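Minutes, project check-in
Item: structure for the 269-residue chain
Input as provided by the requester:
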Amino acid sequence: MDNATIKEMLLDIQESQLDFTVTMTGKESTRVNGLYKPDTREILLHNKNFKTDTQLIYTAIHEYTHHLINEEDIIKNGGREPPHCSKSHTNYFWAKFHGLLDIAEEKGYYKLDMTLSPELESLTQEIREKYIVPNGHLMQELGKSLIKAHTLCDEANIRYEDYIDRVLQLPRTTAKSITKVGLLPEADADLGFENMKLVASQKKVSDIEKVHEAIKQGKSPDSVIAMMKKKAKEIDPKEKLEKERDRLTKTINELTTRLEYVEESLASL
């Protein structure tokens, strides 16, 4: 593949009105397989890192995801380039990336072909059957036990929170998640603990069904989470910037007050 072919493929996966370049560096890197430079809109691919086009395409789509999100951010900011955050691999990023991979598979550009390694296929089945599914059942039983422990604590006039904190030594958020999992139907244990938590976090029956269906379709956890997040209402770019200005002004005032306190404290020492 050459640079032009890669760019053409990316645009076929999803259009972009923001121009960009693709460059295979001809180099090998031990740090990264590729890089996206938002300021210059360059996708750099260290093609010496890859043994196959499939590996190259995976990285190209990864970096293109950064470009598409950069384009979205520019549109949200009224056409101006926003400051680029250090944290770029957000839940939204992974959800969008996985969605683009799905499209690439549908169009025949990319394939996660497990048949290339019968040993990996066998190991994958073993991981599911020996660890993921049993762990789901185990955590579900733990959830039921925590529910029972809560009842017994109440009957003995013992604070359940103290019991969780200092007897079981479980983080409260963890205990809460496991307890919710304990309320799920037995059949849900086959989903595995992490997916069970996604199901248990839904309140509406319709949302539970949506999550179930997405998991069965092979959607990644990030994709499921992004799917279930409520779409934020459209905000006028000017209104958005005004709100950000007010928030920043408040933060600056608070920091200024804190700085004055620190300086006065230092002066008195």
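Outcome recorded: The longest helix spans residues 118-155.
No further action items on this chain.
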